Amino acid sequence: MPLISFDHVYKSYDGKEYALHDIHLAFPENVTTAIVGPSGSGKSTLLQLINGLERPSDGLVFVFGNAIDYTQLPALRRRLGYAVQGTGLFPHLTVTENITLLAVLEKWEPQRVWQRAEELMRLTGLPLDFAKRYPYQLSGGQQQRVGLCRAMMLNPKIFLLDEAFGALDPITRSEIHQEFLHLQNVEPRTIVMVTHDLKEALKLAQQIVILNKGRIEQIGSGEQLLQNPATEFVSNFFKSQLGA
Asked: What is the dihedral of CA 37, 181, 123, 76, to 10 degrees?
């Protein structure tokens, strides 16, 4: 059974027009799935349904094999990694304090907390002497690495990324991509990433979901979508994004 699945999910914000329409979708375990599509296609809404920030108007969202219990959202979210554009770091906390916040709240033993933080900093290429720095003392790429460490601190089986690399310059983004691929190789997990960048999706994801006006146009690997676009929209989307 997949760790995440949608069973004929609809989402409407005004009771009339659907932001998501009849989404029936499964996310394979330990696979990176990218959600792509034009602005307003429902990408972020789909991601927010997974961690309970939004609730479906109809249908069910299953996480860890169970329909989401909306009375137990804090417990669910502690089992999910979540990283967003701009990292969302707390400016008054040091690098270590940002990374370890959830583990401290979970009352991990101090030695375990530091061992995990050190392991993640090494994996993401953050020098250990950055531990006592504050976010304003870091570059954008370094802040993004701290955000990734924090999201992975509790070693979640599910990792959600919402345009997490969108604000980075091309060189830094390329470096973060390499770190991301390395992390997925070392600590495989089920990853759902929303991105406006099709090239990023093709580079990082094994499964790609293309949305258009809240509907799924096609699901498949990058190669499958490139070689056999299911609709004219998919074909035109690839052409506009890749210049083909």
From this structure: 50
**Can you give the pTM of this predicted structure?**
0.87
* The two three-digit tokens of residue 171, written as one number: 């060189």
Among 90, 26, 79, CA closest to 51: 79
Q: What would the 3-class secondary structure string for 84-138 be?
A: ECCCCCCCCCCHHHHHHHHHHHCCCCHHHHHHHHHHHHHHCCCCHHHCCCCHHHC
Q: Which residues make beta-bridge pairs with 155?
A: none
Give 25-67 pLDDT, tens digit per residue.
999 999 999 999 998 899 999 999 999 999 999 999 999 999 9
Give the tokens for residue 69: 């219990």
H or E element that contains 158: strand 158-162
Beta-carbon contacts of 106 under 8 Å, excluding residues fewer than 6 positions away, are 78, 154
6 contacts 24 by C-beta, under 8 angstroms: yes
Label residue 105 exposed, middle or buried (CB < 10 Å: 0-12, 13-18, 19+).
exposed
